[in-house]
Amino acid sequence: MTMLNRYRVLNAILALREFTVADLAHYSGAKDNTVRTVLSRDARFVERVGTQAQGRRGGQPIQYRLCTATEDELVGMLREVDTLGVDLPPLPEGCSDVDPVVMSLKAAEDVLLRQLPAAANEERAQLLSLAAADLEMVQFLADHGEAAVHREVVDLLLRLAEVEQEAAVLTRDAGAWLHRQDASALAAPSHEAEKQLEALGRDLYKLLQVVPAVSKDDPLLLSDLFRRIGTSPFGAVIAKFCTPEPRASEEI
């Protein structure tokens, strides 16, 4: 899914306000699967309101509507891509600007913090690919301030997911341990994975020093980050290393 297609679907959400997958696909020109991916990835912008009767047998399409609580955020996002040439509906005046680099990184955070932990095992690869694509697109632009902090959050979460995926390959019932149903079934991490977990703990400590400064506009960021680490099968290992780097004089 290209970023342009994503914005076309988001634009359709704002323009139509109440819709089905088919409505969004028709308005945006995107494929149904692309629409469903956006609805899953950007779930904060929509809410389900029931099903749409069709007067015939078979499943009824789900009816969605724009979530008014996040409408201003969506408007700000779409203002930033107006220069891409997408035909956007008129947007209200007076909306605050949103840094498109931060916007992309926050989208990746949403996937890694909120969607990935609840996803079925077969959906994880696609979600990770989406988040990695967002990071790759802007990582060299996110070199200072708020963007740099969000970049480090996304990078840490992707690295954690990679270690988890590696262990999943070695675990007979991967779905059970990924959702904390049977953590004892987890395959022991490799030596390389142990080194990665130690590095994750050190980097998490550094992040916790700066995340509060940028989480005023996203009050759930810090709590969701704690929850994601805490519910990982490797959470206890990471927490053990979540300490300052030892000084040279303290090293053995």
Structure description:
The protein is mainly α. It has eleven helices and three strands; from the N terminus they run αβααββαααααααα. The chain has helices at 3-16, 21-28, 32-41, 71-80, 100-115, 124-138, 145-170, 174-178, 191-214, 220-230, 235-240; strands spanning 18-19, 46-51, 62-66. The chain has a three-stranded antiparallel β-sheet with strand order 1-3-2. Helix 2 (21-28) crosses helix 3 (32-41), helix 6 runs antiparallel to helix 7 and helix 7 (145-170) runs antiparallel to helix 9. The longest helix has 26 residues, at 145-170.
Number of helices: 11
Ranges where pLDDT stays below 50 over 5 or more residues in a row are: 83-97
Beta content comes to 5-15%
**Main sheet strand line-up:** 1-3-2
List the helices and strands and how they pair.
Layout: H1 3-16, E1 18-19, H2 21-28, H3 32-41, E2 46-51, E3 62-66, H4 71-80, H5 100-115, H6 124-138, H7 145-170, H8 174-178, H9 191-214, H10 220-230, H11 235-240
Antiparallel strand pairs: 1-3, 2-3
Helix pairs in contact: 1-2, 1-4, 2-3, 5-6, 5-7, 6-7, 7-9
Summarize the structure.
With 252 residues, the chain is mainly alpha-helical. It is 58% helix and 5% strand. The protein is globular, with a radius of gyration of 20 Å.
Short descriptors:
three-stranded antiparallel β-sheet; mainly alpha; 3 strands; globular; 252 residues
